[in-house]
Amino acid sequence: MKQKIIIAIAIVLFACGSAMSQTGTDDNSLFYDSHFHLTNYVQKGPTLKEFVELMGDKVGRSTVFGIPVQQQWSWMNSGEDAPRYYLDTDAPLYYYSFTDAYIADQYYELTDEDKKRFEPMITGFNPADMYAAEHIKRVLLTFPGVFSGIGEFSIHKEFVSSKIAGEVASLRNPALDTILSTAGEIGLVVILHNDISKPYPKAHTQSYLKEVWDLFKKHPEATTIWAHCGLGRVVAPVKDQVQFMVDMLDDPSLSHVYFDLSWDEVAKYIVSSDEAVAKVADMINKHPDRFLFGTDEVGPTDQEKYLKVYNMYEPLWKALDSSTREKVLKGNFATLFDAAKTKIRAWEETNKGNMF
Ligand SMILES: [Zn+2]
Q1: How far, in Å, from the CA of 37 to the mean position of ligand 1?
Q2: How many domains does the chain have?
Q3: Which of 113, 154, 278, 297 is a Cys-bridge partner for 193, taking CB atoms 3.0 to 4.6 Å apart?
């Protein structure tokens, strides 16, 4: 009898322990991935189960999303030369809403323990469509208990935005306002990609700085992560980029805005010199709650490649205070997503049975 009681206590303690390890940051992993694409521009990638294997014990938790657009294989444009990337062809991209059902389906394939490691995100909507917010609500109610946010979705993105069929996305479009207010109302975390400037700025071109700032200011209700700090492959840091970010961080009306350091293309700017590392580290150390690390890997199939961006940032990790480093790598992820999920699950419960 006594033995049975001890075993029962042990089971309860074990269950509590493993449940605890899925919220907060009490595991021994290197980081939580705040920016991860399971599938690529032609909707291919590993299964989520395979990705769990790849994470191993190196990556504790991760967001998971597809890519909202599909590259059309136009026979008229490239014949048998099937494109795998958006730069492989002149054919357009189009919004591929099935991605959300696919991500939910992949999530359902996981064990209950593995599910707790993921924050699936809704991406399959057209941000120029006034009906986009209804798509988001419909996805939540069709797959209750699954999603934690929306994004990464893009407004201005070098070489991509101009290739998407239909009306081009814009920061000024009221459809974007309805998306952000809906995210705020439900509690969804938003991951927004918007280049800070144009790919090859000239004297006569304007950056997107003011428009982005105004947009964020207009939507204090939406917890928003600005993907890649606005940088891109050829979208280089603007003049005084760090000062501009510090101004944003110090503006109390933008306290709901966070920055992600994902993408090797971003890491390349930050680790380009000791001076750049020191400047960025100083900014992050002064605002430890506002930055998140992510990989921005797309459908990775081997762990070494998947960990590449994390390893590229080694000089930055060394330059951060230890408590700041923990927040950037894990703590801020846990804080944002754990809070969001409580709100989202409550919204789903209240709206159960509604049609959108
Ligand atoms: Zn991305």
Answers
A1: 6
A2: 1
A3: 154
